[in-house]
Amino acid sequence: MDNVTPLGGDVYEIDTRMAGYSGITAGYLILGDRPCLVETGTSTSAPVVRDALASLGVGPDDLATVVVTHIHLDHAGGVGDIAGFYPSAEIVVHEKGARHLADPARLMASAKMVWGDKLDTLFGTLAPTDAARIRALGDVGTVDLGNGRALSSHYSPGHAKHHVGLLDSLTGDLYVGDAAGVYLPETGDLRPASPPPDFDLEVALRSIELFGALGPQRLLFSHYGPVDDVPATLERSAEELRVWVDLTKQARAEGLDLDHAVAMVRDRTRERYAALQTDTATAERFELLSGAQSNVGGIMHWLDRSGT
Questions:
Q1: What is the pTM of this model?
Q2: In this structure, CATH architecture of domain 4-243
């Protein structure tokens, strides 16, 4: 299938075709002894993911585990649907996100407030998952991939309080979710992901530091794809966060409201990203991946909360 890319080590990148776009959200299939799907994508992407798994020989009774890095709808909105397609699969999530997968009502209401009429188009509806099938991870945990291979889970908040990074013992791949930001492979751009309500700069920087200390061989971004140059990429992740926070602080000090702060930060960061100098479609996709409104809003919320 044209939305499946082999990455080596029995790992396959799946373009979940979020909202019909290519290159927005990736899921990853680890096709070992106990097949494991990392990230489901949105609810509306679930049939796309199912077809991709079928093309790789994974049928309804073959998938052992579904793991999500966190419960935001672009990563976990399809969990309920995927759980229905694969009745034998265990669903693994950090303990701070588990209850929302079992009862998504609050999560969906919150998403509706943020996204309004765009919610259905972008994400669809997260269906509930039987609580008995959900395994809640503590700050560290393990997912058995079979034949001695495992994913180790590492609590990595800052982007979201229910976020984990996942390290593959065989390949050294680290699934970074959104904790290292958003990567655009066509241009090599990296931009932060600092949405409300959980963003916290110091916590986010500690998570990036933790990722470096784990010594991964490769970073697998949910948005989007594999990156081999690990130290430089993590350094850039931290730098991007600091730049956006410093500029948002300036805007706040000048008494700008959110809309004017977003405009200022967008303007002053524009030169950092090749994607914004290229065609309109690439620029629009980059903004959907890492929206200035969401990023600045999250930083403002953190500044207000922390009294910084």
A1: 0.96
A2: 4-Layer Sandwich (3.60)
